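Standup notes
- DV: blocked on the single-chain target, sequence here:
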Amino acid sequence: MSALTLKGPHWVTVRQHRRALWALPAAVAACLVAAVALRASASPRGTVEPNIWYYALRSALEGAGRGMLLLPVLIAAFVAGPMLAREMESGTYRLALTQSTTPKAWLASKIGIAAVVSAACAALMVGVYRLGWAPVSGTYQLSWADRGTYEATGPVIVAYCLLGVGVGAVVGQWIRRTLPALLVAGAVTGLVVVVFGFLRWSVLTPVTITTPLTGRPEMGMPRSAFLMEAGLLKGTGERVPSWGCTTPSGELGSCVQDLQVTGRYVDYHPYAHYWLTQLIETAVVLALAALALHAAFRVLRSRRG
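- DV (later): unblocked, structure below
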């Protein structure tokens, strides 16, 4: 067991931030208890009249999905502010460097502890979310492609947490003031999460179904599909928005003849694209996290000489 005991700057880091480091495992344990209790109490899937616990489970998962999106932001803010900038602002990091600890080892201990705890807890949270999500998956706002649910059910949230650690390490050393560093690191990480949320479904080419004008291409979609776009097709293959020829009564207007509309189309992502998108996005985010960590040590060298 002595070989597994933390020593040197790692022990100091855990000692300094033990309350915050225990907060994540405690949150995971609380979520696990809640997920098990709600799933056990909820009415079975397919029940004609779900009970109150079924709706409580749905509400909890919707909130948990949004909460998972904030996790990388909070991690980035904590690493940048309380973990790094506060020590540099107060000058206490100089004390660590007098205890036979190199600047590189000091920073590595901060990043290492934060990365291990964050990644482990994020991975466990994915398992807990999936445990509760199973009875309600595919329902309104809890489909595999919905924002929050998508991140909370796959490895991409772990990658975002590691990105938060890297961004926090760079910003904390660069700004060196607790509150500004905390805010900037959180904002940068949150911006990355938002941007990738808008871009992720444009990475893979969606599947397209076309039918004559009298057809209904959406009927050919799998039940688990994620609808991207639907509309009308001209004889040249040019696309026309479905609302462009719809009258107030819901019927197609005269522009169908005017525009020479001949068919309908739908674009969708099948469930098979879920894991491909998760893996691609995870790889890209991990690459950004690695760049951020490299930049953090570059900043350390430039400041320490």
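- Follow-up: The chain has two domains: 2-202+273-304, 207-271.
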